[in-house]
């Protein structure tokens, strides 16, 4: 494509390369602002501007030192986040939108820093160590391609040609290395869109052809019966002992499905669009009413923040662009953006809902990653389907039980209660990367007071040191559980991947029953004390009840642990030994038990876990040898 024509195309009212020509022509005929979501557009633009300003505040600008010039210095991490060059796209978007030179300078500097992680094969390493992972090249290449497509007119001819040449080098690496089984499914799935986009930007049909080949192959990576995208394991086609595939909600909704939606819309692949629509609708079942994503069970839960996944890009394009198929998908795009706004302070997206209350600094990776998809939304705004929040999210109006067989996971709803119980046994890779399992209550939510329980990793580990923050203070798991310690070894149902579940909904009460053993990280059941437990979760309109019992002798100190999500500042009282209350702004949460309740550590102290980025009150109820049963009720008034 001649550069003159390219520049003219890039200035047509935000029209992109991602939708079929009929949609582009229809959008060009609009003469007024779409009636949908003026407020949503303002929210999106204002948040993106805030993030760009926040990134500028942490950007190092020193042209005399090429090792740091343009780098985004992370306020929280000691490592350099090499993918910070992805910020070139949102920075250039903001430069064009505002006319302010500072954004153009920041964008140019952000990308020029790439020389520090540029490798001879055309890839970019994910860290300063040239031997670090380089598959993330696909994300940097997409950001550069988007920047060149929309905003090449902001660049001088020399820089424009140099950047195009660098994009070509990255494209060759992707073209040569990426297959459907290259690694986790998010990489080839993202390359479906990436290679198509880059092929059009560089006028290279080989890339477009490879994109189509990957798009055909990725169709085999959707589960039955709910069409969830799988492949977030090592290897990507691995199956668990229960025969279940590796699924991660965060990567699916915030990365892979975006790529597939944008590709399918561009090439007008109706078959793929129908498949994606079914998949989006199933993934949507896991969005909580406040916009949080329930990834308590996902194989890559180690990167779960309540709003999504820490180094992915956000769900807005996939859900917003498909709102014409289901208006609730548009609601999800809005609710997610609102939550991102609530988790933003001083121009940076914080990695959880309680970072501020616990004094946790934000990792800049969250901001530069998620800023890209806000720019995508704004660059496609004129041809988005109508987006509003009149269509409720499925979990807002849900009632009853929904079982996901491919996840061995139940979602339940009754009255204002929403929850998840899971016995999903797939893990990301060999080792102790344990998300919630073992028949655990992995999420508990109440429409009035919000999130009450949220599972963490059983043991917090830096599975991806470049992409996770260390956990502050003591590592205390947030997953509600039965536990005991014998000979200094920790045993709990949350290590039992062989747990089984049954469910029923009778006379207004939902009943979920799980049978599990107390096991160690080495998958060995505890001996010489009770190991077999039955966990029953009973939900009625007004009360959530948890019962844990065993028929075996209890010889070791054993407890049911119930961390209640609560930020510092909420008043916690214990009116009697068997009751603890938490005063939230919208209601009083009362936790009662048939045995005395204690709070681990200093009374009313909060513990924090990076998964999902929240504070909790660590409540414990110890079994008594004579009763062998703990019953806890939770009410909101």
From TrEMBL:
User: Boundaries of each Broad-specificity ulvan lyase N-terminal domain copy?
Assistant: 48-395
Looking up InterPro entries in the UniProt record yields: 6-hairpin_glycosidase_sf, P29_C, P29_N
Broad-specificity ulvan lyase C-terminal domain location is: 401-636
* Pfam families (UniProt xref): Ulvan_lyase_C (PF25841), Ulvan_lyase_N (PF25840)
One record GO biological process: carbohydrate metabolic process
Q: What's the name of the protein?
A: Heparinase II/III-like protein
